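S.,

Sequence below, as promised.
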Amino acid sequence: MTETPKYSVLKKEKEIEIRQYSGYIQAEVDVVDKDYKSAAEKGFSVLASFIFGNNLSKQKIEMTAPVQAYQSEKIAMTTPVTVTGEGSFTVAFIMPSAYSLETLPQPKDDRIRFKPIPTQQMAAIRFSGYFNPDKIRKNKELLSLWLQEQGLETEGDYIVAGYNPPWIPGFIARNEILIKIKAQME
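The prediction came back faster than expected:
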């Protein structure tokens, strides 16, 4: 079974959850492309090469889920986010929990960097299908509206997360939109 980041659900309402995530490490790469789907595909190739052994120790690393993509912080953002034209995206793989920053093999590709993600609370909305721009936009809007109704502040950008390989039919593919909660819930 593919490892995913560990979390507990603090609140659930239909397809939306507030989650408490344990800390983890992610490998990430920046790519310039027209939308989330194209950026995720391009970034996936770079990161997959690393975990399949294209690193200094030629060590293979187990695949985890999800693959995450978000617009890089270098771009001024508005809410809701709409993607038009080309943009800068960050694509990330969660590293298996058995690794620390000290034990991860060093990538040969200098575009790859490691980022420790601390324990945090995230809001998530689940949807099926592929990284379709309309579905992404619609789910960001639904999550944003729900968060406003709950009086919850967020920080950072929305993350689009895909849990399945590309050969899984879209109607059963698990995807999510996530965003960090600023004030922690009890």
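The CA atoms of residues 52 and 60 lie 5 Å apart.

Coffee later?
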